Amino acid sequence: MVSQVLVASNRGPVSYSVAEDGTLTAKRGGGGLVSGLSAIGQDADAVWVCAALTEGDRAAARRADGALPAEDTGGQRVRMLDIDADTFAGAYNGVANSVLWFVHHLLYQTPLEPVFDTEFERQWAAYEAYNAAFADALAGDAEQGATVMVQDYHLTLVPALLRERRPDLRIGHFSHTPWAPADYYRLLPDAVAADVLRGVLGADRAAFLTRRWAEAFAACCADMLGARVDGADRPDGELRVTHAGRTTRIGVHGLGADAGFLRERAHRDDVAERMAALREQIGTDDSGASRRTIVRVDRTELSKNIVRGLHAFRRLLRDRPEWRDRVVHVAFAYPSRQDLAVYRRYTEEVARVADEVNAEFGTASWTPVVLHVKDDFARSLAAYRLADVALVNPIRDGMNLVAKEVPVVSDAGCALVLSREAGAAAELAQDALPVNPYDIAGTAAALHTALAMPFEERAARTERLAAAATALPPQAWFLAQLDALHTP
Ligand code: F6P
After folding, report:
1. Cα(1)–Cα(77) distance, rounded to whole angstroms?
2. What average pLDDT does the segment 325-331 reach?
3. N or C: which end of the chain has fewer CB within 10 A?
4. How far is CA 414 from CA 448, 453, 476, in A?
5. Which residues form the domain of 293?
6. Domain identity same for 481 and 461
7. In testing the pocket of ligand 1, which one of 9, 10, 11, 400 has its CB within 8 Å of the most ligand atoms?
8. Mean of the pLDDT values across residues 303-321?
9. What's the rounded mean pLDDT across residues 475-483?
10. Distance from Cα 29 to the centre of ligand 1, integer Å
11. How far apart, in Å, are the Cα atoms of 351 and each of 306, 346, 347, 360?
12. What is the per-residue pLDDT for 2?
């Protein structure tokens, strides 16, 4: 079995808030990596290296000299890096979230952006310094021959930097985002585009959520670096990218939903309470029948396409008057990346369009769009359980776990309207209703089909969706990566 395992990610498994009197309160996070890492057991020698994101985190990191107390982390060894605040902001907001995220999700309005000038050069230098800080910390903490699992677009330079420092280590990189098509990737300045690819290729194995993103990465390596790509015909499907005399294996691991956790959590009392409150808000139509629900749950993230989802709902009500008074769009849009002006404007636009739809169609007894912006996991699960239709229409998404979670916890079956540009479509498209996320008429038509779907068909599809969605739960997903990294 693998000896020491180190995980490196920007956001760690715990965050701190600081009270006025200086007291720090730790809050543990969830997600695929947290439960994935738990697969190797509490006794195993695992270390999670992450960045301090907030003032509370910085205070906690300084207090403990980076190594957080076990009582805050549930026993997990966590080393939080107190990277200088300007460097962190340039790397995280400047490069990771405003450039690499935009490139991989195709978010630029290209007539005016991106503009790579002196401000970007400063931010890129910060990104290099931030990646070097991770590489230094990992090189310092790793035992001889340890395995290091580097996560995501924040840390693309780490694999190559770490290999220079510690050639004895086994290094993996995992991308949780899509990867841009080569023509779009070329928006980046050439040197930056090449550095990012060479950085990831520093890993022994680079892995992605779907074959589509793995192939896009390999295509960028061929295009920008002249790398050789082989392996398309291998029985295990692993691509091989060879550049500058080294070969990096390219793998695919489609993270699935954690059925055991979700089903248990979704049947606690707080979820039942929220279901009752939601049912009250949704209400009954003129005939006294419960209204249908179209549910979405997202971070208010540009790639999630919430505004076009509202346009599609409006189009449904315009084109299909039979649904007026009979359906409610329950939209949960939780705050995200509010340090960035474009996210703040997008958040306002979501509220504005929701208000417009309500003004156009609402009546004294029917609110067509119920929008909630305060993050509440129990309420999200409540909405999953009662949804008739789930709307998951991202412009582009690495996977999209909402699409996988809804079928797992749905009480009576739920029709899934799913963007063909979400990674989840690779596994779920057959039993979902696939849509082009830019096509409002097409999305409205899919919403109509979903609402009109006979209950038996909906339930049967949901059962198959749940099976596909749980094929590779977080622990198996994590172990499969570790295994593959150690298989020659
Ligand atoms: O999708 C990739 C990802 O890293 C997710 O794991 C996470 O939800 C998000 O991007 C990062 O969000 P944040 O900037 O809030 O850490």
Report:
1. 19
2. 98
3. C
4. 13, 10, 26
5. 259-469
6. no
7. 11
8. 98
9. 95
10. 12
11. 10, 9, 7, 14
12. 61
